[in-house]
Write a structure and sequence with these properties.
346 residues, alpha/beta, Conserved hypothetical protein from pyrococcus furiosus pfu- 392566-001, ParB domain, three-stranded antiparallel sheet
């Protein structure tokens, strides 16, 4: 007769430690807290966050301090939650929280299987940093529900420009965000795609470059702006970006680079504004008595054939201009002397 297999004994059910509100002045830092280096790092931001929300997102993990007889003394120590403890202490000192104010705590069971050091280490190691994409989306949800860029920046102790950059990243084509989430592209590549809000065009460019061994941000930006005019183009400089925008011209701007002023999208409008300004300038010059004037952005090769170059006559400086020149020369000589006597840079 076959023997019946013995059943394994059921594992005991887990019973979590209970939560309790404890006066802050009954809690102290534990010597078992493993964080000993840079304990003040980031406390300004954490204190600001607790202050603005007037609450804790996560309570303290504490253990009762026992008296000589092994009974609870009414005092507690926190091995896990030292940064929160220090931030609350700052708020007490600033008069924003009472010294005996109640703090939500998880009170470790007396028969806990793990030590205070174990708890402290677990709180610091058993955590996963938020993926940047989750941050972008979170900022966008806050913005979409009514918070301004400045309010979000103030809440998270950063700059409005940083928030604008993250909001722009969150609006890239969903398929590209998925690729970034899967580590198929880097953050700097994703940033390059923000120069053009056209999702279809973004996806077209990604399809062209994703399997290439040479994927550079500048190449992506060039491909996304190939039908536009750079702000450094002579036509844009001649007309002025402000005039172009006042006429209704759209501009693509790169929030992740300060090297250019953007790209002008409406080339037809820009060329019209250039022609209008050229005609205006030509009319002003014609009023000086010239027989005829040609005005164009680009003149054909050889257009000066048969023409005689007029050489200007150097005018004498006025007394005021001469005095200004001498003052500048004296200042230059003084700076040269200071530079000659200065210590060499390391």
């Amino acid at each position: 007769m076959a023997k019946a297999a013995k059943k394994k004994p059921a594992a005991p059910m887990i019973v979590f430690s209970r939560a309790r509100d404890i006066p802050f002045n009954r809690i102290r830092l534990s010597d078992s807290n493993v964080r000993e280096i840079n304990v003040e790092a980031g406390l300004d931001e954490l204190t600001h966050d607790i202050d603005r929300r007037e609450d804790l997102v996560q309570g303290l993990n504490v253990r009762a301090i026992l008296d000589e007889d092994g009974n609870e003394s009414g005092e507690f120590e926190t091995p896990a939650g030292g940064r929160r403890y220090r931030s609350i202490a700052r708020l007490v000192e600033a008069g924003r929280f009472p010294a005996d104010g109640l703090v939500p705590c998880i009170v470790k069971k007396a028969d806990a299987k793990t030590s205070a050091v174990d708890d402290s280490l677990a709180e610091n190691l058993q955590r996963l940093a938020l993926h940047p994409l989750d941050q972008f989306k979170a900022f966008k949800r806050m913005f979409d529900t009514g918070m301004s860029k400045d309010e979000i920046a103030d809440a998270w102790r950063t700059t409005p420009r940083y928030i604008m950059q993250r909001l722009r990243l969150a609006t890239v084509a969903p398929s590209l965000l998925d690729a970034y989430a899967k580590n198929e592209m880097t953050l700097v590549l994703l940033e390059a795609f923000t120069v053009n809000p056209d999702h279809e065009r973004q996806e077209q460019v990604w399809e062209r470059v994703k399997n290439s061994w040479q994927k550079e941000p500048w190449q992506i930006r060039n491909m996304l702006t190939e039908t536009t005019v750079p702000a450094a183009d002579k036509r844009a400089l001649f007309v002025g970006i402000e005039v172009y925008e006042a006429a209704g011209g759209p501009v693509l701007r790169d929030l992740f680079s300060d090297e250019n002023g953007g790209w002008l999208q409406d080339v037809t409008l820009l060329d019209r504004l250039v022609d209008e300004k050229l005609r205006t300038v030509a009319d002003e010059i014609a009023g000086q008595g010239w027989k005829w004037i040609d005005a164009a952005v680009e003149l054909p090769y050889g257009h000066t054939n048969g023409l005689r170059r007029l050489v200007g006559v150097t005018q004498e400086l006025t007394d005021e201009e001469r005095a200004t020149r001498e003052a500048l020369r004296d200042e230059y000589d003084e700076l040269e002397a200071q530079y000659a006597e200065a210590d060499e840079l390391p």
